[in-house]
C-alpha cells in the first residue's frame, strides 16, 4: 500500500529530561509541551534511600548527571533539563550552576535545572516575596528556603507534608489546603515544589482564588526548557505562561466563565473556581488566603478525586509529628 501521500512525520524538536529514578509524572510534563516538541526522558540509577537531603545529593552527583546526559545526547535534544527540585537546590546557587555546567559539558548541549528555572521564573514575573508549599520533610523544606534566600527571595510563609515517599500520590485537594495555609501577609507568588507532586490542573484554580501567580516545579522546568529553544509552554490560564494574567489582583480576577476551554478536566477546575469565588466576600480575603470552600463542595472535588486515595485525611505533619507549618 502506497502511503507516500501522507507525508511526514512532522519534524520534531527535542527536549531532554533527566529525572530521578522515582519520578512518576511523565504525563504531566507532556501537558505543557506543544505538538512540535518531543520529550526524551531518562532516569538516574535507583538508590535505596527515601526522599531526604541525602537522596537529593545522591541523585544530583555530577557523575550520575554526566552519564544521563550522554545517553540523551544520542537523540540530539536541543536542551537538557534536570527535573528535580531538591536535587538542584541542595547545593545552593553555586551548586546549581555547577550542575548546569557539568551537564552542558557532558553532552555539549545547553542545560538547566528545576531550581535554576524557578529563580528565572520568579524574576520573569517580578516576584520576591514567596509562599512555599512542599511535600518534603522540615529539613528539605529548610534547604529550599535557604536556596531561595540566596537567590534574593524572601519566603513569607510555608506549608509542607513531611513525606519521604509516594509523593506522586498526593491529591490536588491536599495541595490546595497547603497553599491556603502557606499564603499569609504580603506575598507576590506561590511556589509548589517537587517535580513528583501533581500540579497542572490546580494552578489556575489557585491563581483565581489567591489572586497571585502560582508556579510549580514541573511548570517552571518545562517553561524554561521550551523557552531555551524558542518554543512556548502551553497551559490553561497560568500567569507564568500568559503575560496578560500578571497584572496583580485585578488581572487575576477574570471570571472563569469568560474563558474558552475544551479540556473537560480544565472545565471542572474552572467550575470549582467559580464555586470558591461565590463565597469570597472581598478580594482582600482571598489575598490573605482566607477564602474557605462552600459546604456543598471542596475546590479539590472534581480534580481527579481518585488520585492518591488515603492521603489528605489528617493534618499535615512535620518531622516531629507536629503541624507542618514553618
Automatic annotation (TrEMBL):
Residues 284-326 are annotated as: Disordered. Residues 303-313 have a biased composition (Gly residues). InterPro entries: Iso_Racemase_Enz_sf, MaiA/AMDase. Residues 285-302 have a biased composition (Low complexity). PANTHER family: BLR3294 PROTEIN (PTHR40267). This is Decarboxylase. It comes from Streptomyces antioxidans.
